[in-house]
TrEMBL record:
Pfam families: DUF3667 (PF12412). InterPro entries: DUF3667 (IPR022134). The keyword Flavoprotein does not apply. The chain crosses the membrane at residues 80-98, 123-140, 152-177, 183-204, 216-239. Keywords: Membrane, Transmembrane, Transmembrane helix. This is DUF3667 domain-containing protein. The keyword Glycoprotein does not apply.
Amino acid sequence: MNTKSCLNCGHLVSDEFCPHCGQKADTARITPRSLIKNDILGSIWHMEARFFSTLQDIITRPGQTAMDYIAGKRIRYNNFIPLLLVLFSFNVLGLHYYEKFAPPEVLADDSGIKDLLSKYSKAILFVIIPMLAVNAYFLFRRINLNIAEHFIIGTVSLLGILTLFLLDDIVSLIVLWKPVSKIFNIVDRALFAVSVLFPALTYWNAFKSSYTRSGLAWRIIVLYILMVSESAVIGLILYEIF
């Protein structure tokens, strides 16, 4: 077995990565070719590939993605919290461009929703996840997850919603082009419906093997009733304050 010293920490390395600091064992002198291939292009490709694969898993298998992350299978995913902030920023940017290009009569029709999202977006972001986590903690006790692990499931659920909202922003911009407006209006409504149902899809996907269909269904319905009731109370409080 060939061993050599890690160039970063000095520990003996006999595998592809140093067991002490995690640096690759084949670290070599930087050349123009390696700088472009590995450091620049390789880093960009690695970041983008993991970013899009994370979003793909969140959309197609949200509950299982959250459970895999909780179980320790994390190297294939971007960290969910920074990803949440990135998607939130993209949504703010998408809303900005929609308001920039949409005609005044269109903005007047949906000004109530847009104003609500614009004014209370940060509050919505930081309230939905704790609400989901606390409610799910009591409704899904059989799973034996702690509150922090339910926080991860709530985060994945919100990531899915933000991804769908971002797609909806893109579709809303396309709808402004009248020749395709009817077709994309249908897509717009479908994306909104899926985003509303996304927490249900997340918990169903996460816990479908632990409950009967009826047992899981009534828990998800109660979760939605609690979320709507709590959101109404929070909305009234924000309205009174602001």
